[in-house]
Design goal:
Number of helices: 9
Number of strands: 4
Bound molecules: glutathione
Distance between the termini: 30 Å
Mean pLDDT: 96
Oligomer: single chain
Helix content: 55-70%
CATH class of the largest domain: Mainly Alpha
Order of helices and strands: EHEEEHHHHHHHH
Strand content: 5-15%
Number of domains: 2
Low-confidence stretches: none
CATH topology of the largest domain: Glutathione S-transferase Yfyf (Class Pi), Chain A, domain 2
Shape: globular
Amino acid sequence: MITLYQFAPTWGIPNLGQFNVKLETYLRMTHLEYKVIETLPLKAPKGKLPYIEDEGQKISDSRFIIEYLKEKYEDTLDKDLTAQERAMMTAMQRLLEESLYWVGMYTRWLYTDENWQVNKQAIFGGMPPVLRDIAALVYRRMVISKQIYGQGMGRRTADEIFHLGEVDLNALSEFLGEKAYFMGDKATSLDASAFGCLINIMRVPIESPVKDYALSLSNLSAYCDRMMAEFYPELMGSK
Ligand SMILES: N[C@@H](CCC(=O)N[C@@H](CS)C(=O)NCC(=O)O)C(=O)O
């Protein structure tokens, strides 16, 4: 059976990490059997979650993991898509994972102290108090300087960051339109990625203009609820 390593669940959503939600949703969409081991990124092969272990092999990075799963267990979700649809999916996925993701990171680690406290409790709350505070301090400095500033998002002002977030959300909302799923009436791996990102903006206790804006886009909000009901019925109504 596949073992999925990811953060412990919190906030009444599948996972606080969008890439963890992406992968677990993919596993559920494809009905692959898996078990979860809760962990922190420090122990992960690339220092990031999620990763999986399958028949003694460790694989990290959700994109490579999904490629591996498609090859080994059959590509049931995306196999009928045209080359043009695949191209669109790739572009949308990059928007979700390389652009909007960093807006979310900014809101959790840097935007306000209130958000940071909520984020800190969710990630480090299971540790003994003194260790928790030291680990959180060190890790936060690293995430801000090496990741958010290093990637470039953190060099922008809050207004600029939230503007970029709105542009991305508008693109997602327009592209989804009235469709049930991002590519039409059938779920694809793009939905795993989209749900992971959107749920982690809209249904988390991390307050920001980007969350408010996302919530104002009714088709994205309804999409999150539908995906949650379809793939995580056990979490419906929990908080
Ligand atoms: N490209 C990776 C990104 C994974 C990633 O950024 N994971 C985050 C949590 S969602 C993480 O583990 N961050 C910890 C860190 O960077 O120290 C993937 O698609 O799996």
